[in-house]
Amino acid sequence: MRALSALPLDDDVLDRIFTFCPTFTTLQSLILVSKAFYTVYQTHPRSITRAVAYNIVGPALPQALRAIRYPYGDDEVEPGDREYHKEDPDTMATTCPEEHEPSVITAEEKMELQENARMVQSLEDVYSLTQKDRTSATSVLTPEESWRFRRAMYRIMLYCRLFPGDRYTLDDIEELEEEGIKQIQKQRTAVLAEYPTDELLQLYAVVRFLRGILEHVIGDEELATNLAQLFLSLGPESILDAYEDRNYDILEDLLGYSILEEDGDTPLYIGYFSTPLNNIWAARKVTAPPKEEEPATKYILDEIIGANDTCSQCPSLGGLKLITSANWHRVDLQPTQFLKSHLKQTYSISHPFSQAVDKLRLEHAAATREENKRSYPGFKLDFDDDNDGDNDIRTYLPPQLAQFLPDFNKLVDNDPTRTSPAPFYAAVFATPKPSEWDEWTQDKSYCQSCFNRFFEENAWRWYLREKIEGGWNPPEDCWYGYNCKTMVHKQAHADSKNHLCVPTRGGP
Ligand SMILES: [Zn+2]
Ligand SMILES: [Zn+2]
Q: Which tens digits make up the pLDDT trace of 384-441?
């Protein structure tokens, strides 16, 4: 059919082209090309918009739409004024179903879909790197695996928005009493019971993954056991933020109370996912419900790449745990742990060494931010650090006032623990070293102990070079080099000789 467009293109072809747009912005530009284009678009706006939404979100579109469309409740209503815990579980579970007739996707929904798709993609990248293939920083999940992961992630998002950790203060929770908490447990079970068992197992696997991220960010094992359940309720987007920030302050801020002051024992969040899931396994007589001590990735992944790989330098089996450049940013370090022998205990060496490592990390983080600013025009950092530019107070103030406010970005910039240690690892690999290290290149995989050994033997070489490049003129080498015990307690000796060198004599 060629009537409407009056172009050397069939309207059907144009309609098809519309449906291939990778983003809503592309679609918008295309519609505005000419009146004829616009007219063709107007014949099927719903199906075209849905097709583009599908390009952005993929086959998990029904779940993505439900997560943003569900009528969660009015933000203006105080929890005390609306008795969420008294709402009917079945109504909650069946409201705004995933499967429905194609509908108009509003401008606001388009933005939310795009935003969430970006977030889920980032989480999938982390999942892929930690559970599927340690050598790729971007996801290598198969389309089927990716679909399982994303469908589950959007359902988790919905669940966390229905039962958010920031809804009740600790006093509210006390007022709910056992009865109210039981009621909420029923609602949670009903919401999850809408899904078939295999898809619930996939959801369980993704919950385990999110909990793993939280445990990694929290660090302390005992604290993590208490906190992870509660933090899960803040939803995937907050968990990703904490992961990227390498810090869980942001989660505590969201909760609105300091969990460390309490004992972390909030009955409403114990078994946040596991209690309703266990109810369902029991009700459905699932023969082999998942076990805490077994990996859950089998519910999402058909294959793990390099699961049986060994360290490049020793026979240690490491699989996904092996360290390679793609996952360096996950290897947290105390820089001085990498200093050889007595260099560690010599403050006049270990302290400036740590500072040099921090400086490298901060400079690299700043350069990455600059790079981002260049690649996304309009990109502007703000103090909530979500990069949407809406929160930089200084832009709302006259410049003569704004200059007195601290640059919130700078505050974040000055904390090296919130930046990736990867630039330091790269710098040590790039430092010239004796030929015995020729086989140790940054693209190879290492077990933790070989990785540590490599850095212990070479981090000081990087530091020596760094100092010389900064204008340092090294004094004569001490015979005992990094093994010298005198430098630890005699400052004058530490200063008068160079100890960043291999010993030429045994024990002083
Ligand atoms: Zn090894
Ligand atoms: Zn010495």
A: 444 444 445 445 555 555 555 444 444 455 788 888 899 999 999 999 999 999 999 9
**Are the C-beta atoms of residues 227 and 214 closer than 8 Å to each other?**
yes
Nearest to 349 by CA among 504, 495, 507, 508: 495
Q: What are phi and psi of 323, to 5 degrees?
A: -100, 130
Looking at the fold, whether 409 and 425 belong to one and the same domain comes out as: no
Q: Which tens digits make up the pLDDT trace of 355-376?
A: 999 999 999 988 887 777 665 4
Q: Are both 478 and 342 inside the same structural domain?
A: yes
**Contact criterion met (CB below 8 Å) for 175 and 223:** no
Q: Which amino acid is at 233?
A: S
Q: 428 CA distance to ligand 2 centroid (A)?
A: 24
Q: Is residue 12 part of a domain?
A: no
481 CA to middle of ligand 2, Å?
A: 6
Distance 441 CA to ligand 1 centre (A): 13
Flag whether 254 is in a domain: yes
Tens of pLDDT, residue by residue over 69-113, are: 999 976 666 655 678 888 999 999 999 999 887 788 998 999 999
Q: How far apart are CA 236 and CA 163, in angstroms?
A: 13
**Residue 256 in contact with residue 266, Cβ under 8 Å?**
no
Instruction: Tally the C-alpha atoms within 13 A of residue 193's C-alpha that lie toward its C-beta.
Output: 21
Q: What share of the chain is helix, strand, coil (3-state, %, to 5)?
A: 60, 0, 40
User: Nearest ligand, CA of residue 488?
Assistant: 2
